[in-house]
Automatic annotation (TrEMBL):
<feature type="active site" description="Proton acceptor">
    <location>
        <position position="821"/>
    </location>
</feature>
<keyword id="KW-0645">Protease</keyword>
<dbReference type="GO" id="GO:0004843">
    <property type="term" value="F:cysteine-type deubiquitinase activity"/>
</dbReference>
<dbReference type="InterPro" id="IPR028889">
    <property type="entry name" value="USP"/>
</dbReference>
<keyword id="KW-0862">Zinc</keyword>
<dbReference type="GO" id="GO:0036506">
    <property type="term" value="P:maintenance of unfolded protein"/>
</dbReference>
<dbReference type="Pfam" id="PF00627">
    <property type="entry name" value="UBA"/>
</dbReference>
<feature type="domain" description="UBP-type">
    <location>
        <begin position="187"/>
        <end position="295"/>
    </location>
</feature>
<feature type="domain" description="UBA">
    <location>
        <begin position="725"/>
        <end position="765"/>
    </location>
</feature>
<dbReference type="InterPro" id="IPR013083">
    <property type="entry name" value="Znf_RING/FYVE/PHD"/>
</dbReference>
<dbReference type="GO" id="GO:0008270">
    <property type="term" value="F:zinc ion binding"/>
</dbReference>
<keyword id="KW-0072">Autophagy</keyword>
<feature type="active site" description="Nucleophile">
    <location>
        <position position="345"/>
    </location>
</feature>
<dbReference type="GO" id="GO:1904294">
    <property type="term" value="P:positive regulation of ERAD pathway"/>
</dbReference>
<feature type="binding site">
    <location>
        <position position="214"/>
    </location>
    <ligand>
        <name>Zn(2+)</name>
    </ligand>
</feature>
<keyword id="KW-0677">Repeat</keyword>
<dbReference type="GO" id="GO:0051087">
    <property type="term" value="F:protein-folding chaperone binding"/>
</dbReference>
Amino acid sequence: MQRRGALFGVPGGSGSRKMAAGDIGELLVPHMPTIRVPRSGDRVYKNECAFSYDSPSSEGGLYVCMNTFLAFGREHVERHFRKTGQSVYMHLKRHVREKVRGASGGALPKRRNSKIFLDLDTDDDLNSDDYEYEDEAKLVIFPDHYEIALPNIEELPALVTIACDAVLSSKSPYRKQDPDTWENELPVSKYANNLAQLDNGVRIPPSGWKCARCDLRENLWLNLTDGSVLCGKWFFDSSGGNGHALEHYRDTGYPLAVKLGTITPDGADVYSFQEEEPVLDPHLAKHLAHFGIDMLHMHGTENGLRDNDMKPRVSEWEVIQESGTKLKPMYGPGYTGLKNLGNSCYLSAVMQAIFSIPEFQRAYVGNLPRIFDYSPLDPTQDFNTQMTKLGHGLLSGQYSKPPVKSELIEQVMKEEHKPQQNGISPRMFKAFVSKSHPEFSSNRQQDAQEFFLHLVNLVERNRIGSENPSDVFRFLVEERIQCCQTRKVRYTERVDYLMQLPVAMEAATNKDELIAYELTRREAEANRRPLPELVRAKIPFSACLQAFSEPDNVDDFWSSALQAKSAGVKTSRFASFPEYLVVQIKKFTFGLDWVPKKFDVSVDMPDLLDINHLRARGLQPGEEELPDISPPIVIPDDSKDRLMNQLIDPSDIDESSVMQLAEMGFPLEACRKAVYFTGNMGAEVAFNWIIVHMEEPDFAEPLTMPGYGGAASAGASVFGGLDNQPPEEIVAIITSMGFQRNQAIQALRATNHNLERALDWIFSHPEFEEDSDFVIEMENNANANIISEAKPEGPRVRDGSGMYELFAFISHMGTSTMSGHYVCHIKKEGRWVIYNDHKVCASERPPKDLGYMYFYRRIPS
């Protein structure tokens, strides 16, 4: 055993002294209760620091806590020791040395290296023929930094030896989160090989599904025998349904069904009613194709072409990645790349753009000491900690250093190679932000726009005090809906975070070229000749902007003037302009055969954007408003009891239903409230809640969760603006149990609107007598306050001029969001820079006309 203070810069740490085995045991005795052997459910982090991107390959190595199994770099281990008092850490270090040369000057023949026992990625910049790796492990006892070399079976207590072996042999904590490993655990259905499919002509459209026996539009299952689309049952995960798919099986005996919405190029969720469990269907592609779902043509790979990609598609990859030019690498603060984890480029591109915005830099990196010091005991599961870690990794320059000059390399390598880490791996960040999300938690390619909204949702839910950097994206949209029959109108406002522009294909300025190219291409395919050079449609940006402002038909419009469904049209304008405007070009769609299609177009996106003419004007003279009458709410009978019995835990909100509603254009926070207050009964029931509450002034305010301490901005509440007025939903739950309304209100006020504690309060106050005067007085005061108070504060927006300048854009290569590759271009210090995974270079020809998402900043007026 030795004590090496030099490891931490402590003077005099180079000395060492030997101790007998008994001395080592005596030294460890006080710490034995804190040393644990990892259990099967424990996550052991031995490759990456919880607060930084230090690893065993870093200069200071990595310290793994022998109690929590969290890992810390040299700069952060002391913080964990002070906060938790945990004293025993395993220090892991990987050394890289030049190989010993043979007599002829070449490296000695390769042999199995028994000195490597850490599961780490090797340094791609080093030639494996010239350098070798050696891993080192030892126990370090704080605060004196005593070191015990490992292995040390003779001197260490058995428990410590077992714990050390278990830590060193543990698998990556991220492997459990890889859904691809789950599929291996599912059995193959015995009905898959010989499944009978009826030739009844059924074709399933790519959207707009509804249960054939009720009106539910979620948790729908496609029967693989006859093509029936029916709802599932009420599952433990709160996904709603009336069990019609199961009833259909009992009536027909058709055994297999696939869940709509889960179908991807890699498979789908298949259930066997006969076997009563989820199963694998090896012939799923064939069974889906029977109903017009051709998913095989959707398969693609990250940063590569599909086998059946047309050759002209290659030019898109070359143009967007600027492959034909010699790009100069960029290093230093703000020029750090993100390593690709396998189809993670969508995340990398979005995060590079996000952390180029000063508000996000200040909120996270600017508050780094406070966020790290007050992080929870497991910082790997804290959003703000992981955002701060990622932001610091991208902006500090610590992981983006230029290569050492050639004259220094030989001198450095004589003793030990000190690798320069270029680029960081966002594995821990991705694992956390994608947790419980069925798509982002997979290794499949995703839509960058959907991830952007997902990230905004997480920022909103985890804001630091009153500071919310996503405020810079938030704006109000005024929607004018007109009943085509009565000509009456309704004006509403909703919150949004990005502007979606349709592709106005009919406005292409090179139609003659497109027609000639299409004829030539078809002729070349028919005669098996080389395809002609690709011709893209050139779309004026003004045409896309015009298409955005034109009226749209409203599906299933319910006219309050007619008290019935009618035809309606909707137009949208900006009620406020955000500080940062995100524009999405809607390039992706689905064909009737479910094969995703991409509009391969060139849009002349402006560097300077003026949208002041899209400012909302409100009710105009001569317009007559629709009556303020709500449509009837239809709730399935078997769902009413579930709604009245309990409110869901806030952490269990069905995010898929939230995103389904958000994709309809409703504000994100309103969607979360709708799903929460309808008990996770599905998007359709939540939609009805939205229709009823959408005109309330706090409709788009963040969710106030009774009893969980979550609060909206000052003065805002979900149901009326009084901080101490219990939500009617909870009052109704208590009164439905047989208690008086006055008693319910009194109990909720006494317990800060916590349902469970309110029930305890009622049972613990049997002497409670109805004090009608008290309640009447309180309610009168509440009504008086509501009448007298000023107009409620709406969603926080940073309104201003509608003049913007372009500073970043994200581009996509490939035929659909389920395949291909993303890169990001950002304008920094007056020049464009391309961020292509871990590679960061000065851009020579930024392809601004081929982007997918554009980021504009407001020009100060």
